[in-house]
Amino acid sequence: MIIVMEKGVGQKELDHISEIIKKAGLKAHISIGESKTIVGVIGDESKIDKEIFESLDYVESVMPIQKPYRRASREIHPDNTVVDLGKGVKIGGNEVVMIAGPCSVESEEQMFTIANTLKKMGVRVMRASAYKPRTSPYAFQGMGPKALKILDKVRKETGMIVETEVMDTRNVEEAARHVDMLRVGARNTQNFDLLKEVGKVDKPVILKNGISTTIEEWLFAAEYIMNEGNNKVILCERGIRTSEPFTRNTLDLSAIPILKELTHLPIIVDPCHAAGKRGPIPALSKAAIAVGADGLLIEVHTDPENALSDNAQQLKPAEFEKLYKELKGVAQAVGRKFG
Amino acid sequence: MIIVMEKGVGQKELDHISEIIKKAGLKAHISIGESKTIVGVIGDESKIDKEIFESLDYVESVMPIQKPYRRASREIHPDNTVVDLGKGVKIGGNEVVMIAGPCSVESEEQMFTIANTLKKMGVRVMRASAYKPRTSPYAFQGMGPKALKILDKVRKETGMIVETEVMDTRNVEEAARHVDMLRVGARNTQNFDLLKEVGKVDKPVILKNGISTTIEEWLFAAEYIMNEGNNKVILCERGIRTSEPFTRNTLDLSAIPILKELTHLPIIVDPCHAAGKRGPIPALSKAAIAVGADGLLIEVHTDPENALSDNAQQLKPAEFEKLYKELKGVAQAVGRKFG
Amino acid sequence: MIIVMEKGVGQKELDHISEIIKKAGLKAHISIGESKTIVGVIGDESKIDKEIFESLDYVESVMPIQKPYRRASREIHPDNTVVDLGKGVKIGGNEVVMIAGPCSVESEEQMFTIANTLKKMGVRVMRASAYKPRTSPYAFQGMGPKALKILDKVRKETGMIVETEVMDTRNVEEAARHVDMLRVGARNTQNFDLLKEVGKVDKPVILKNGISTTIEEWLFAAEYIMNEGNNKVILCERGIRTSEPFTRNTLDLSAIPILKELTHLPIIVDPCHAAGKRGPIPALSKAAIAVGADGLLIEVHTDPENALSDNAQQLKPAEFEKLYKELKGVAQAVGRKFG
Amino acid sequence: MIIVMEKGVGQKELDHISEIIKKAGLKAHISIGESKTIVGVIGDESKIDKEIFESLDYVESVMPIQKPYRRASREIHPDNTVVDLGKGVKIGGNEVVMIAGPCSVESEEQMFTIANTLKKMGVRVMRASAYKPRTSPYAFQGMGPKALKILDKVRKETGMIVETEVMDTRNVEEAARHVDMLRVGARNTQNFDLLKEVGKVDKPVILKNGISTTIEEWLFAAEYIMNEGNNKVILCERGIRTSEPFTRNTLDLSAIPILKELTHLPIIVDPCHAAGKRGPIPALSKAAIAVGADGLLIEVHTDPENALSDNAQQLKPAEFEKLYKELKGVAQAVGRKFG
Predict the structure, then answer these.
(1) In terms of CA atoms, which chain A residue is nearest residue C240?
(2) Is the Cβ pair C254, A256 closer than 8 Å?
(3) C310/C186 same-domain check
(4) A67, pLDDT greater than 90
């Protein structure tokens, strides 16, 4: 940590700051320059909060130099984490994995129809929400526990890997008993109690970025899960909020190469929630693979017009099948296996 | 709702869209113009999701014309809501109310020291968090249930009104038993299960905006609480995330006059979390009152340097007292009572 | 245009608004609903500014329904514009075009070294700035007119197509005499006098988005150029400003499929200025081709460490050559010709 | 400047970096820590561009520690700059100055009507644009040179101080001959050639922030003007672009206390362009004075509905007069003189 002092700081202030550093079990290194005096903090930075220095009137700025998250950091864990989803599917290795399915579980029939359609195409991992975070309290809130039972039946009878979203700490355990994989959505990236709860479960967790969390905050959210013992975290880029009104959110594909440098965790892309409409999904899916994503999370519905949520951004099976084939070529062009 | 159709749309598509509208119990009004065909939806818009139309290939855009939130809307409830905090303190009327106190409950001694200091100055409502949403899992997470007991003791022995933050659905009921008022922080503005839970409690709720929720999303969050039966919602502007690196967040003071038009709910301002440092807090507090806020939420600590959280943005008692006096003049200048 | 009136609007207001509409040579269509009264404006919307209605106290909101830009709009010009750069190079057709070169012209020797290196690899279009928009007045501001002469020599002696940036209305004509193609950078996207000036020149113009212009504002900027008679506009996505501190800007690749729907103009991508560092450039370049871009604008320097500007984001020839080869595969995978 | 090196950096890299620093006439100070090696650059940082270090593969991050702008910096010039507008009006001292007038010059009659109305109320500085930066090429672009002559007549005959916007380097000299004060608008904050040109003129310049320039970039823009010899720069906050759709822009009032710390230049606030509509202007004006602004820039038109631009955000004389009186109280409450 580097502490830049205000101009004209005296010995008294330097002594005070040195004492704070010492008390935390760290060493202070003072450099008095012509224009500024700088204090370097030597040792494990996580032992002290930078705000303590920022609260001092004679401190101008404080710059951490160590990565503040550890379990998620590639600096400490250089090798890629490959998350085993079971049934032979691994994410984070050479293969790009497709996760597809409807926005919400609507009925057993709907789920089996879509599951069978996707399975026939070669898809092995299915998404579908039992609980739905909706902006309006008057919108469809998900089927809840009934949906969990349907998901359980689908994974048992079709052999597909099934994931679903959790929103409430009180539902995590039950959800984990019925599906193979949990998902934490954009509104809950910093719902820290929920993160701790999914951290106690022994199932892979898809962790989406919040619409305006920074990459560092996102990695800290992963750290919350890993800190409870669950290392099977899969990051999922789903778009960030910007001032552009034409898309619902802006898919931040530059986050993928950046995350690949900062963390060893796998990272997938959800182009549907960013786009908010079907049109750009195929182009964005290709770009996601080209930029280095380890997987895609795509909404597919056999009858999007009559779906109970996300009508505009679920692909129809024929649209999805066309895309699925095209993605193979892009994956090959960047040296990855797909489908 | 106004539906703008793509150029060259035919009778078949118009029939289809009319049928969808009819099925929802609404009426369609079709205007065929030279360049565009427009379908007006007549009746209660909340009966139909605009995404259903957006999912149709031949629809260009859909524009709602009714306010989608109702309980929070001034259009439907023209009179200001005045929330009675008890002990003679009301928020949302002519008086501007000060809520002050430390970031976190750290000990019984700390709480009584600060409570007595504030009480002497004339402050009647105290803030302090038992549960802390922290970016890092390694930062102080709050004292939890022990803190709730301290808060209870403080309100009983000092006669102050006491509020605290809730983060987890599992803690709402217990927290509500120990304090007079609950707070939902910026990371939980769209934690819908938490909103429903505080909606079931008969205590005033301070609801902060998320760092990038829109005003409409924020009002929908209020609607979630009100929809469960709790109408005592106090909105609290705490800054939004922008690309300016000098402040932690940008305090959006223009939200106050806009909210005053859109909703009947009281609105207060938290300048501390936006600023992230002590310097700008006094100026922003004055501006908040000048712009029309019904109250302020300010962090005060007798020893910010040794506080367990938010060291840089808690005012010292002397700084707070100076500000408290200055605010009176600003309140008078805009015709409000204060302090 | 659809005008939504405030609740409780009377006949007097409706008469007034009808009169304004009539005066502009348009027709008013009034629908009195249960909750709202709506006025539709029938005819060419460009004849009236929506602000005139917004200025009326009894108007709640105004929604345009016609695309406000015309020359740039695909709705009016459905076929792709293919811009002929000369020497057999066309942009906007099936081929993806590479434009590469140093950030700035630094000397004749530097320019010929890089030009020959690029030409050998197969690159046919070269970039290099004579005038540099720099945040600080103390940074290198470009070689100016001398650089223009060097660029002229390079294009004549190497046979490459050469482009350069213009910043000042007073330099447009001279720049146009020395190069094949002009570029308007992100700080000048809404420098309207400059747009008019390049609109009077008969050379292709690369028009970058501003760091926070919306897509609509960007298309209006193109409209300014086209309105003066120059239809050879090539849009170039170069990243937008967001709250993410890890990248200088966020490359908005979703803008490409959206622009392909809204406009007939070609669109290329500059991944270097968004990234601000070399690391993510190769991944973003592949993603740009996969998402549908018609070309790339990439900074290449034989000695980036000693360059006079943009040291961190110029690729070295070996890095560029490796990327150039990899891009061919991605282009093929999406059915495009490249290199 | 502090340079943080990648883990595992060797002596060869340290020698290389030391040499670069030495070559620039500066000294290197190397600290080899347990986890990271840090190089401090001692001396005048402006002699070297941080990108040179960022371009090196073995450098992790570079942090400047000196303020990169100098003429605009309070660190170097601790005393407030008070800009003398002539005719006894000074900005940047204790008095809060009102600048009011129509968006555009529309006719001699319109200008004299508004000037006389404002003068009678006590306003001494008048705004009005001769050149208009408009998003659309089809919108009213300003009366140009004719308007300049009207402005000249107004200032001579009414005795008011008159300001106007410049957009094109070619018009600066002529504009400066006809008015007392120039204005650079939000689209031209980083139009560096224009900044240099107004820097050569001996008239006060109002410099607005760009809709997404950072505070540092804005101060650099001021530095461009001051670097040419013109120190009479008045900063004007006019709102920033955020993701909130309810206001056109978000007025960043926290910028005022922050700027007061960073710079000695006066700073005024334009609430009209941020709001985009009349409603919030009075509340925002009061907040601007409460937060510490040295002046206000407000659009007033005798007939906003028939104005040629900005219809929705120009106050009517009666609205303005009411506000003008209310502002006096707020100014007094914060110890300032007004009106």
Answers:
(1) A242
(2) no
(3) yes
(4) no
